[in-house]
Each structure stands twice: as C-alpha cells, then as structure tokens.
Amino acid sequence: MLVLGRLARPGNTLSRQIHSLLDFAGAWPASERCAFEKDMQVLQDFVTAEEEQALLREIEPHLSRLPYETSHWDEAIQGYRETEQRNWNADNRLVLERISHLAFDGRAMPFVHILDLAESGVIKPHVDSTRFCGNTIAGLSLLSDSVMRLVRVVEDRGDPYWADLFLPRRSLYVMSSLARYHFTHEILARELSTFRLTPIGRKRRISVICRCEPEES
Hints:
By secondary structure, this protein is α+β, with helices and mostly antiparallel strands. The chain is 21% helix and 35% strand. It has four helices and twelve strands, in the order βαβαβαβββββαββββ. The chain has helices spanning 30-39, 49-63, 90-104, 177-181, and strands at 22-26, 40-43, 77-85, 112-126, 136-142, 146-152, 161-167, 172-176, 183-187, 194-195, 198-199, 205-211. It starts with 21 loop residues before the first strand and ends in a 6-residue tail after the last strand.
C-alpha cells in the first residue's frame, strides 16, 4: 500500500493510510495491484525544511565539482551528476539512520548514492540491475516535486498498465520486490511532468538513495 505520513521521527513507523499520491492506469489485475501497493510506499515530509537544507549544505560542495553528464553507462539518465558518500556530519547521519531503520531494519549499505538531476534532465524507463544492491531501495527527494512513472513489463504483449506516483519535495519513497523488478520506472521530464492533469513544474532534483546488500545466491 502506498503510505502517507507526516514527519518521521525515531519510533515512528510507516502508517497504513489510503492515499492521493498514486494514480493507476490501464487494466490492472486486482491481485497485482494489491501487491504493488505493498511494494511501493511513500512517506510525505520525511525531513523538515531545515533538515533538507542541512543535507544540501553537505552534499552541494561535492556535487559542485562535477559536470552534468549527457549520458549514463546504461543510457538510463540524461542531464545528471552523481556521487557516493559514506561519511556524514552527526545531524545528517541521524536522518540517514532513520531511513535505514525504516526501510532496511537498520541494515542499509554504508555508501549513499546521491543523484543530481538537472531541470532539463530525465531518468528514462529502466529496470534496476540486481548486481549492485538488494531487494529494496529508498530515495529521499530534495529541492523539487516530481512524478515517477512505473510501467509493467509485459512479456506476452498484453494490454499495458502503469501507475504515476507523485513524489513531493522532502518525501521518502521505498520501492521493493514487484514494484522494483517487474516494472520500469522513470522520472518524467519537466515538460511531461503532470499528475492527474496538473502540471508539476519539476525543477532540479537531488535524490539521496539508500540501498541494501544483494542477497547471496
């Protein structure tokens, strides 16, 4: 189930509430829609405006030394720059620990992936590789609202179905299992970024992405 909430603080858990951030399209099988709602979760206002600024103050000096890239190794992203960071100041470490405990039972990988998408950038439809991390990823959205589209990978050429997910600024999404490996996901380009016919006006967006270790085969 898509999950909404207000400020996540130590001791809070993902509450189960019907939502307004998810828009289904196409002929979804009922059982799969139910499973998808469990595997694609969002927590609104996971960080405060002050916590967002504290994260940005630590992130921006690293990003500012990097140029925006026009293509990615798997051709999935355009207009981006990225880095990984392991060491954080004490306040920001507390935020990352909240993510780790909420999404990974405290077992997130030590390196945090930081993805800076320019206002003109785009994350194209793709399915994550299973080589680099485990079943779940959690992404904190900074600087801008955005729309994530997830489209079912249909092998028998059946009728397509998909969902648009509105990701408010300062929200946290947690994606796992069905939603992660059986749907492509993308961040819509600014000119295509609408949710339920409402223009979102996506700007530059920084994602702070936490992961878990791949499962042993």
